[in-house]
Design brief:
The complex is a heterodimer of chains A (241) and B (656).
Chain A (H helix, E strand, L loop, with lengths): L6 E4 L3 H14 L3 E4 L2 H11 L3 E5 L7 H9 L6 E6 L3 H10 L3 E5 L3 H20 L7 E4 L2 E4 L4 E4 L2 E3 L3 H12 L4 E3 H9 L4 H22 L5 E4 L3 E4 L11
Parallel strand pairs in A: 1-2, 1-3, 3-4, 4-5
Antiparallel strand pairs in A: 6-7, 7-8, 8-9, 10-12, 11-12
Chain B lengths: L9 E6 L5 H15 L2 E8 L6 H16 L3 E6 L3 H11 L4 E5 L14 H8 L4 E5 L12 H7 L4 H24 L3 H18 L3 H19 L11 H49 L3 H16 L3 E7 L2 E2 L3 E3 L12 H14 L3 E2 L10 E8 L2 E9 L8 H67 L6 H32 L8 E4 H9 L10 E6 L5 E4 L1 H17 L6 E9 L2 E8 L33 H11 L4 E5 L5 E8 L9
Parallel strand pairs in B: 1-2, 1-4, 2-3, 4-5, 13-15
Antiparallel strand pairs in B: 6-7, 6-8, 6-11, 9-10, 10-11, 12-14, 15-16, 16-18, 17-18
C-alpha cells in the first residue's frame, strides 16, 4: 500500500460514490466508503481518516450534526458536498467547522484539487506542531507576527490595522473557507448588516494590495455569498482553482 | 328593472308619518324575509314643516325599519313620486311597498295618487299596496291641523302690520298725486307678497290678504273711512283677495324651494366630492381614510374607524379634531366591545341609539348587504346632537363608501383569480416545455453512453472522444437548465425571498465567469468595470445566475471569436451592469419580447437545441425583484447590449 493519507467518502448515492471511489483509485489514495451518517461516525473513530468528503444530504442524519460531533475531538479537514442553490446549508456547515465545500455537479479535477488543498493543511499543521510559529510564510507572502508586519516578495505591504487583522485571521486558517459571519465575529466582535458591506470593501482592498505586489496568483479566494479563503501557494504555482 | 348586481331582490318601503305606516313596514319586512331580499326604508323629506308629533312618528317608523334590518335612506324632494322613482331606478329596486294612497293633496299639485304616478315614472318596478285599515287619512287637509302647524310670533305679526301700514301710506301718496285707484290695489298685492316672503307660515299671508282688502275698503273706496262700499267694488275686492292669496302662496313655495335647493346643492356637493375622492382612492386604506375625513368634515366631530381584518376588527384609526376633544378619556376596551357588537350585528349602536346608548360614540357599520367592511365611531357625547339632515348625508356617505369598498374587494378578488389562472397556465406551459426539452439531451446522453459501452473496441480514439464530449456537454446543459428552474420556482410563485446583502460587482462577475459554458473559451470575454469597489444590494446567488444567463446567451448567439464585454458603472442611485457582444444583435422589434418566457429567437429549426427560453425571462423577474430594470439595445454596426440596473449599496468605511 502507498503511504498516502486515507480518505473517507460519505455519500448515499451509489453512482456518485462509485465515481468518487474510482477517482481516488486513479490517484492512488486509499479510501473508505460510508453510505450514511452512522457508518461515517463509525469509520471516523475506527480508521481515523486524514480527510472526510461529506455529502450534506444524508438519509439518517443532518450533515451539520455529523460535523459538530466529529469536531469535538478531531481537526481533520472536512469537505462538504452540496448543490449550488443551497448556499445557506454550506454556510451552516462551514460555521459548524467544515473546511471547504464542493458544489454538485463537480468535476473530478475539482474534487482532487480541493483534496490537495486539504491535505496541504494537514501537512502544514503537522509541521507547525509545538506552538505557533512567529513567522508565517506562504508563497511570496510573509507575515512577521512579532513585528506586526506583512511582506510580499520581500517588500513590506502597507496595511491598515483592520486589513492586517483580516490577513492574520486568513493566514492562521490557510486552506479553510471562512464565512462572512465568522470573520465579522472575529474581527469586529459583533456585527450589523452595514458591516457586511465594509467587510467586502476591506477584503477587496486587501486582495488588491496582495495582488499588485505578487503577480497573477490570487492569495485570497472569494466565495460569493459564503466567505473567503487564503490559499496555500506553492512555488512554483502548480494549479489554480 | 332587472335585478341588482348581486342578483338579489331589493325591496323598498316608503316611510311616512302616517299611523298606518307601521303596518306597511311590517308587511315589507315579512315580504323581504320570505324572499331573502334586501330591504331599504326610504323617507322622502320635503319643505313642509312638520309638527312634533309627525316628526316623532317618522323617527319611530325609521327606528322600526332599522331594527327590522332595513337599510335607511332619506332623499329630498317636494314630489314624493319623482323622488321614489328616481331612487328606485338608481339603486336597482325591484319592488316598492306602499301604504294605500299616502299621496299628498294640495291646491297646486296634481291630484293623481302616488301609486299611479309611480306606475308612470317607474314602470318596471313592481308596486305592492298594503290595504289601509284606518279610515282617517291624516295627510288630508284639515283646519285644526293647519292651525296647529302655524305658530304665532309677535315679530311676524309686527312685520305684517308694518308692511300694511307702508302700503297704506303709499296708497295715500298715489291718491294725492291723482293716480288711478287700481294702482293702490297693486301696491297692496305687492305688500302681501312681501309679507309671505318675510314671515313663516301661511297664516300671515292669509291674514295680510284679508286685511289689505279691508284696509283698502276702509281708506280708498267711497264712502271713505267706512267698511261700507258700493257694490261696484265687490268684484274688485274678490279679485284682489284671490290674487293676493295666490301670489302669497306662490311666494311661500318659491321660498321653500330655494331653501330646499340650497340643501340639495350642499348635499350634492358633499356627496360628489366624496365620490370623486373615493374614485381616486386606490386601495382599502385610502377609501377608509377618505370616508373618515369626509365624515369628520361634515359632522365636525372626531371620527374613529375600525377596519375589518378577516372576521375581527383591526386596529382603530383615529381622526381627531379639537372641537370635541378627540378621543381622550375614552374607555377603549369597552368602546371596542361595542364596535365588535356592531360589526357582528351590522346595525347602529352607541350614543343616540337604543343599544349601548351610554357609550361615548355613535357606532355604525359600513356595510353592503350583511357584509361589514368597517365600523365607524363618531364622538357624540360632548357636542350638539347631529341633526336629521346631516345624519342622512352621513348615511349616504357611508353607503357610498360601502359600495367603493365592495368594488375594491371585488377588483382585488378578480385580480387574484386572474393571477392564479395566469400562474397555472404558465406552470402548465413550463412543464410541457421542460418535459420536451429534457428528453432531447437525455436521449443523447443515454444513446452516446450505450454506443460507448457496446462498441468500445470498434470505435477509434477520436470518435470516442467526440462521444464523451457530447455526453459531458449535454449533462452540463441539463445542469444549467435545472439551476434556472430552481431559481424560477423561487421567483415565479410570487414569494421571492431575497437574501439581500451588499456585494461587490467585481466579485459577482468573477463568480459568474467561473460557471460559463465550455464554448465560452472560444469567445474573447473581458470586463470593463469602472470602479472595483462598486457595491450593490443583491441576492448574490440570483444575480450571479442573471450574469451567467446573459453571458451564456451572448455565447450562444455569437460565432466563435466574437467579443463579449461585461461592464458596470455607477449612475446616480443605481448601478448599470451590462453584457455586450458583437454578434448579430436582437431581431428588430423583438427588444421587449426577448424577456418573455419561451422566447427563443426567430429562426429555430426543429433540431437545434438552443434552450427553452427561460434564461432571459428569469433575468427579468430577478432584476425586477431587486427593484431594477433590464433592457436590451442593439449596437452599431452590429451586436447586442443587455443592461440591467441594481440599487447601489452605500458603505461607511470607518476604521475604529
Amino acid at each position: 500500500m502507498s503511504n498516502k493519507p486515507m480518505i473517507l467518502v460519505v455519500e448515499d448515492d451509489a453512482a456518485v460514490r462509485n465515481l468518487m471511489a474510482a477517482t481516488l483509485d486513479t490517484q492512488g489514495y486509499p479510501y473508505h466508503l460510508a453510505r450514511n451518517g452512522s457508518e461515517a461516525l463509525m469509520e471516523v473513530t475506527t480508521h481515523q481518516p486524514a480527510v472526510m468528503l461529506l455529502d450534506l444530504g444524508l438519509p439518517d442524519m443532518d450533515g451539520v450534526d455529523i460535523i459538530r460531533k466529529v469536531r469535538g475531538w478531531t481537526t481533520m479537514p472536512i469537505i462538504v458536498i452540496s448543490a449550488r442553490s443551497e448556499d445557506a446549508d454550506k454556510v451552516g456547515a462551514l460555521d459548524a467547522g467544515a473546511d471547504d465545500y464542493l458544489t454538485k455537479p463537480f468535476s473530478v479535477d475539482e474534487m482532487l484539487a480541493r483534496l490537495r488543498v486539504a491535505l496541504r493543511r494537514v501537512h502544514a499543521d503537522q509541521q507547525a506542531q509545538g506552538g505557533e510559529s512567529p513567522v508565517y510564510e506562504n508563497g511570496g507572502l510573509r507575515i512577521d507576527y512579532a513585528a506586526g508586519c506583512a511582506y510580499m516578495a520581500g517588500n513590506e505591504i502597507h496595511l491598515t490595522p483592520i486589513e492586517y487583522k483580516l490577513l492574520c485571521l486568513l493566514a492562521r486558517n490557510t486552506g479553510k473557507v471562512l464565512t462572512h459571519n465568522y470573520i465579522l465575529k472575529e474581527i469586529w466582535g459583533s456585527y450589523t448588516a452595514s458591516d457586511v458591506g465594509s467587510l467586502r470593501v476591506f477584503m477587496a482592498m486587501l486582495r488588491k494590495k496582495l495582488q499588485s505586489d505578487g503577480g497573477a496568483q490570487p492569495y485570497i479566494q472569494t466565495h460569493i455569498g459564503i466567505g473567503y479563503r487564503m490559499l496555500r501557494i506553492d512555488r512554483p504555482p502548480e494549479e489554480t482553482q | 328593472m332587472e335585478k341588482s348586481k348581486t342578483g338579489r331582490e331589493r325591496i323598498l318601503v316608503c316611510i311616512s308619518a302616517s299611523p298606518t305606516n307601521v303596518d306597511v313596514i311590517r308587511r315589507a319586512v315579512v315580504l323581504s324575509n320570505a324572499m331573502h331580499a334586501e330591504l331599504i326604508a326610504l323617507y322622502v323629506e320635503n319643505s313642509e314643516t312638520h309638527d312634533e308629533a309627525q316628526a316623532k312618528a317618522v323617527h319611530d317608523h325609521l327606528g322600526l325599519a332599522e331594527r327590522s334590518g332595513a337599510l335607511l335612506t332619506t332623499v329630498y324632494g317636494d314630489d314624493p313620486a319623482t323622488a321614489i322613482a328616481q331612487y328606485a331606478r338608481v339603486s336597482g329596486i325591484t319592488k316598492i311597498v306602499l301604504g294605500k294612497s299616502p299621496g299628498r293633496r294640495s291646491l297646486f299639485s296634481p291630484k293623481e295618487t302616488l301609486m299611479s304616478r309611480l306606475n308612470e315614472l317607474a314602470p318596471n318596478v313592481e308596486i305592492i299596496i298594503v290595504p289601509n285599515q284606518l279610515t282617517a287619512d291624516p295627510t288630508r287637509f284639515s283646519l285644526s291641523r293647519f292651525l296647529n302647524r302655524e305658530r304665532f310670533s309677535a315679530t311676524d305679526l309686527a312685520k305684517t302690520a308694518l308692511i300694511l301700514a307702508v302700503c297704506t301710506g303709499m296708497g295715500f301718496v298715489f291718491k294725492g298725486v291723482g293716480l288711478a285707484i287700481t294702482n293702490v290695489v297693486l301696491v297692496y298685492i305687492l305688500g302681501v307678497m312681501a309679507v309671505s316672503l318675510l314671515t313663516t307660515g301661511y297664516l300671515y299671508s292669509l291674514l295680510s290678504s284679508l286685511l289689505s282688502v279691508l284696509v283698502f275698503n276702509f281708506f280708498f273706496t267711497e264712502p271713505y273711512l267706512s267698511l261700507r262700499s258700493s257694490p261696484d267694488y265687490f268684484a274688485t275686492f274678490a279679485v284682489m283677495f284671490a290674487v293676493a292669496l295666490l301670489s302669497s302662496s306662490l311666494t311661500s313655495r318659491i321660498k321653500a324651494q330655494s331653501i330646499q335647493t340650497a340643501n340639495k346643492a350642499y348635499q350634492t356637493e358633499v356627496l360628489l366630492s366624496t365620490s370623486q375622492l373615493l374614485q381616486k382612492a386606490e386601495d382599502r386604506e385610502a377609501i377608509l381614510a377618505v370616508l373618515q375625513n369626509q365624515l369628520s368634515r361634515l359632522l365636525e366631530h372626531s371620527v374613529l374607524l375600525y377596519p375589518m381584518n378577516g372576521d375581527g376588527l383591526g386596529e382603530p384609526v383615529l381622526h381627531e379634531i379639537d372641537q370635541d376633544g378627540g378621543f381622550e378619556g375614552i374607555d377603549v376596551q369597552w368602546e371596542r366591545a361595542i364596535s365588535e357588537w356592531v360589526a357582528q350585528n351590522a346595525v347602529h349602536a352607541g350614543r343616540t341609539t337604543r343599544t349601548f346608548s351610554e357609550a361615548r360614540c355613535l357606532y355604525m357599520a359600513i356595510r353592503s348587504g350583511r357584509k361589514v367592511w368597517a365600523v365607524v365611531g363618531i364622538r357624540a357625547d360632548n357636542a350638539p346632537p347631529i341633526d336629521e339632515y346631516r345624519k342622512n348625508l352621513m348615511i349616504s356617505i357611508l353607503d357610498e363608501g360601502a359600495l367603493a369598498l365592495e368594488k375594491d374587494h371585488m377588483t382585488r378578488e378578480k385580480q387574484r383569480v386572474e393571477e392564479s389562472a395566469r400562474q397555472e397556465a404558465l406552470r402548465a406551459n413550463l412543464l410541457r416545455s421542460i418535459s420536451h426539452d429534457l428528453r432531447t439531451p437525455l436521449t443523447s446522453i443515454s444513446g452516446n453512453a450505450a454506443l460507448l459501452m457496446e462498441n468500445m473496441g470498434r470505435l477509434d480514439e477520436a470518435h470516442r472522444q467526440e462521444l464523451y464530449t457530447s455526453i459531458y456537454d449535454d449533462a452540463i446543459w441539463l445542469n444549467g437548465l435545472v439551476e434556472n428552474l430552481l431559481m424560477i420556482t423561487r421567483t415565479e410563485n410570487g414569494t421571492i425571498a431575497l437574501h439581500l446583502q451588499a456585494e461587490l460587482v467585481t466579485e459577482a462577475v468573477e463568480e459568474a465567469l467561473r460557471h460559463l459554458d465550455r464554448n465560452a473559451s472560444r469567445r474573447h470575454i473581458s470586463t470593463a468595470i469602472e470602479d472595483d469597489l462598486l457595491m450593490v444590494r443583491m441576492d448574490a446567488a440570483l444575480i450571479v445566475q442573471v450574469l451567467i444567463n446573459l453571458l451564456n446567451n451572448a455565447v450562444k448567439y455569437t460565432p466563435d471569436g466574437a467579443h463579449i464585454v461585461i461592464g458596470a458603472r455607477r449612475a446616480g442611485e443605481m448601478a448599470h451592469i451590462w453584457v455586450e457582444d458583437d454578434g448579430q444583435g436582437v431581431p428588430e422589434g423583438d427588444e421587449n419580447k426577448v424577456f418573455d418566457m419561451f422566447y427563443t429567437g426567430v429562426k429555430r429549426s426543429p433540431d437545434s437545441r438552443r434552450g427553452i427560453g427561460l434564461g432571459l425571462a428569469l433575468c427579468k423577474s430577478i432584476v425586477q425583484a431587486h427593484g431594477g430594470e433590464i433592457r436590451v439595445e442593439n449596437l452599431r454596426p452590429h451586436g447586442a447590449r443587455f443592461v440591467f440596473t441594481l440599487p447601489i449599496a452605500e458603505v461607511i468605511e470607518d476604521e475604529q
